[in-house]
Write a structure and sequence with these properties.
Blueprint: E1 2-3, E2 11-16, E3 19-24, H1 25-32, H2 50-60, E4 62-63, E5 66-67, E6 72-75, H3 95-98, H4 100-105, H5 113-116, E7 117-120, E8 123-126, H6 138-150, E9 161-164, H7 174-185, H8 201-211, H9 218-223, H10 243-249, H11 251-263, H12 274-279, H13 288-297, H14 299-315, H15 321-339, H16 347-351
Antiparallel strand pairs: 1-2, 2-3, 4-5, 6-9, 7-8
The structure holds zinc ion.
């Protein structure tokens, strides 16, 4: 199922497993887009009819334990169609959900990116329209955080577009969604990954794909009858590239796990399979809070290992273990501090793995 949320256009196109519907966007907006309707798709709860059924259907579909609408991210073109606060275009949640306190202060809650980003003599500049001034302290901190995350965004040419983050190719296919839904329902022979809520969704999804051996390593591609010219792991240049090798037994991975275990004050990890990796937090002698943090921390270097592998394979960049570790610690800190509820931790405490 795929949908466009830019119902300001004359028509909204909905494709539902091959069923193509053309709906009058202006009409839907007039009926359903109430003044205080902040959802991904507008819906008047008092109404009935086709549109309500479509929205309820979309909201009920889960793909790998997530709402299907959460897996479509906006990519900024001219900024006219992506709603600044309500759509997902920076990070993996809407700015409304990421910064609810700031959202409450906004006058025009349904504004587009284009409404907020304007061209000035010195380049692009963000404009704001608050109901009152931002207060010092927590409010200002949140504003700075949000601003830093979007400061380098620029308007481009052409219309805004939407990408699918449910797989590594960012390509939406009905088949991929069907498979995701089927595997999500079939619990008998599939591994159910415990999500780490403070880690971005795309990394959780990557981990799930890794455990399911769906990362396109040389070994996995061979199994799917692809012709592979170079099947040696580019991280170590020694062994056949497979998921378990790259993330567990490869020299690069081993060094990273050693550094992570030392940082987290745990015994050195011994991991032989990707499943060992995602369950390691259950077997270390550390506190409950630390274990929960470790569950998410383990995911981050996996994401960076795959990124480094691609950079090395396709751009011949050097692989530096220390930078994977440092990136893990700094991004981990950013996400843990800002995405986990009721957490107050300094960078020094994080580096000493002292979770209050
Ligand atoms: Zn290797």
């Amino acid at each position: 199922m795929f949908f466009y949320t830019n119902i300001n256009n004359t028509t909204t196109r909905v494709q539902s497993f091959g069923l193509h519907l053309k709906l009058n966007g202006t009409l839907i907006k007039a009926i359903h887009d109430k003044k205080r309707s902040w959802g991904c798709l507008p819906i008047d709860n008092q109404s009935s009819g086709v549109w309500r059924k479509i929205v309820r259907c979309i909201e009920s579909i889960e793909y790998n334990n997530m709402g299907i609408h959460q897996l479509l991210n906006g990519v900024c073109g001219d900024g006219a169609d992506i709603r600044f606060w309500l759509d997902i275009w920076e990070g993996d949640s809407s700015l409304k959900d990421g910064f609810p306190r700031l959202f409450r202060l906004k006058k025009d809650k349904k504004c587009s990116i284009k409404n907020r980003l304007r061209m000035t003599d010195s380049g692009f500049d963000w404009s704001w329209n608050w109901s009152r001034g931002i207060q010092q302290g927590e409010e200002l901190n949140k504003f700075n955080l949000m601003y830093n995350s979007i400061a380098d965004k620029r308007l481009g040419e052409g219309m805004d577009r939407w990408i699918w983050i449910g797989n590594t190719s960012n390509m939406f296919t009905v088949k991929a969604v069907k498979n995701g839904m089927i595997t999500g329902q079939n619990l008998s022979d599939r591994y159910i990954l415990q999500w780490a809520s403070w880690v971005p969704k795309k990394i959780n999804i990557f981990m799930w794909q890794m455990v399911m051996d769906r990362i396109p390593t040389a070994d996995a591609l061979k199994v799917r009858n692809s012709v592979i010219n170079d099947d040696i792991c580019v991280l170590c240049d020694e062994s056949l590239e497979s998921t378990s090798h790259m993330f567990c037994s490869c020299g690069v991975a081993s060094l990273i796990w050693y550094k992570i275990s030392t940082w987290c004050k745990a015994f050195p990890f011994f991991v032989f399979t990707t499943k060992d990796l995602v369950e390691i937090h259950n077997h270390v002698q550390i506190g409950k809070k630390e274990r929960k943090a470790l569950k998410g921390i383990i995911m981050i270097p996996c994401w960076f290992i795959w990124k480094e592998r691609n950079d090395k394979k396709f751009a011949n960049n050097n692989v530096v273990v220390e930078s994977i570790f440092q990136n893990t610690r700094s991004m981990g800190y950013l996400w843990y501090r800002n995405r986990k509820k009721n957490v107050s931790i300094s960078w020094k405490e994080w580096c000493r793995f002292e979770l209050m």
